[in-house]
Amino acid sequence: MSGGAPDGPRPGPAGGPGEDDLDPDVLEELEAWVDPDDDGPAPGDDDPVTGADGRDSGQGAVVLVGTPIGNLGDLSPRAAEALASARVVYCEDTRHSRRLLTHAGISGVPLRSLHEHNEEERIGEILAAVGRGERVAVVSDAGLPGISDPGGRVVAAAARAGATVTVVPGPSAALTALVVSGLPTDRFCFEGFLPRSGRGRRERLDVVGTESRTTVLFEAPGRVAGTLSDLVAVCGADRTVAVARELTKLHEEVWRGTLSDAVAWAGDRPVRGEVVLVVGGAPETAADTVSDDVLLAALADRRAPGERTRGVVDAVADAFGVPRRRVYQLALEGRAAGPEEEGGPSGSG
Q1: What is the spatial distance between Cα 83 and Cα 100, in angstroms, rounded to a whole number?
Q2: Engineering a disulfide at 321: which of 8, 47, 82, 287 sits with its beta carbon 3.0 to 4.6 angstroms away?
Q3: Cα separation of 268 and 314, whole Å?
Q4: What is the spatial distance between Cα 262 and Cα 200, in angstroms, rounded to a whole number?
Q5: Are the C-beta atoms of 2 and 250 separated by less than 8 Å?
Q6: Model confidence over 168-216: pLDDT tens digits?
Q7: CB 66 within 8 A of CB 170
Q8: Gap between the Cα atoms of 155 and 163, Å rounded
Q9: What is the pLDDT of residue 305?
Q10: What digits encode the pLDDT tens for the residues 238-248?
C-alpha cells in the first residue's frame, strides 16, 4: 500500500521549493533530514533569539504546530505561516526543523531545542516571551507536539499562568493509523509507548487485554515482534490487529490480521520505520453487564470485621467473573476498603 505523493510536481508551502527539487531520500524518510554530516546546528546548538525585530508584535501566545509525519507535502499553508511569523520555534531537533523550515521557504526564525530532557527548564523562558507579547511556536519532529512528544508540560504551565495557547492542527500518526486500520473508530484509546519492561509494562498490557475499545500503541521497529507476542499473551491469539508502518511515506504499509498471524509476519522479516499498532477491543462478556452497585453490595456483604481488603476483592472478582482491578477500584471509591488495604491490584483479573 503506497502512501507516496500524487504524480507530478507539487510546490512547497509558502513559496518554498517543490517536492521535485528535494532529494528523494528526504521524501521517503523523514529521518534523513538529520544528516550527521550536516553543517547546520546540532540538536543542542540553539539559535540565539535575535534578528526578528518586529515579528509578532501584539498578543503573545504558545502556538502548537502540527508537522508532517513523513510526507513533506502534508505541511499545511497555515502551519507554514505560523512558523514563519513566530518569534522563535521550539523543536525537538534543531537540524530536523531547520530542514522543514527550509523546505517551506522560511528563513530568519530562531530555533530552540525542546525535548524530554530540557522541557521543564524551557518553560520559564517560553512564558516570559509570551508575556512580552511574542508568539512562540512549538513543534515536534513529526505530528502534533504533546502526543508522546515534548510540549505537554509547556501547555500545562501556560494554562496555569493564564497564557493563550492555540493549535494549528496537522498530521497525527495515531489517528492516521486508526482510521486506516479497518477497526472500530467510534470508541478508542491511546496508550502511546508501553514501558519497556517490568511491572509497569505488565500492568499496561493487562489493561490493553481487557480494554473493550480499540487501542492505539506506538512501538519502535526493533521491538514490534516482542510486543506482538506479549499482546497475544494478554489478548489471545485471535484478537485483531493492524500494524501500520511508514505512514504517508513512499513505502507505507498496513498489515491486518490476528495477533498470532502478526507475530509470524513480524518474525519473517525485519520491520523498519516508525510503527503504530492498532489492537481490536476485547469482546464484551456477561461480566460486563454486572453493575457497580451489585459489586459494591457484594463487597459490603463479604467484608467481615478484621478481614483484609485483598481477600474480599479477590472473592468478589472471582464470584462475578470481573477483573480484580475493577473491584479494587470500587472498593476504594466506595470507601469499602479499610486501613489495611496494602497493595493494589496484583493481576489482570
Answers
A1: 10
A2: 287
A3: 42
A4: 24
A5: yes
A6: 999 999 999 999 999 999 999 999 999 999 989 999 998 999 899 999 9
A7: yes
A8: 9
A9: 65
A10: 999 999 999 99
